[in-house]
Amino acid sequence: MPVELVDDAGHAIGTCPVSQAHQAPGQLHRAFSVLLFDDAGRVLLQQRAAVKTRFPSRWANTCCGHPAPGEPVAAAAAVRLAEEMGLATPFTEVGVYRYRAKDPSTGRVEVEWDHVLVGRLAVGAPRPNPDEVADYVWIEPGALREAMASEPDAYTPWLAGVLELAERALTETWQR
Fold it and tell me: Which residues does the record give as Mg(2+) binding sites (predicted)?
């Protein structure tokens, strides 16, 4: 599968295979992270399957992935949410989280221009795809921050930044 390479401003500059984009030193490319919240304000996390090529078995946001070159981010995110978690719900892009992280267990590198999408799951229950997801949990954001601080290697390196961006956007929305 090809990914869309981007420059430092997030503009498309080419494509390459996803495997190549994640080889050291890594290439900046477009990605997305979805975070779903329930009516109690808890966030839905997934534990990545052990077969994942980057950060396997770690806890992450509700789902994530890469849009195909030229594919709208929200459309790609909706497809991945259905594929990984068996869910469909509206969501909104709230910003971009740019990060670089090397996976110590696989040597692969993430250099991502990560579009963060947030939604509320009012009905339905996750039906995770076992090829993608080992487990899932609903957790209060404060408890999640404490868990990430005490056991950082149990979580993906992008989760804290994605959560912070999502919560900031939700707080601004709720204060209007």
Answer: 84
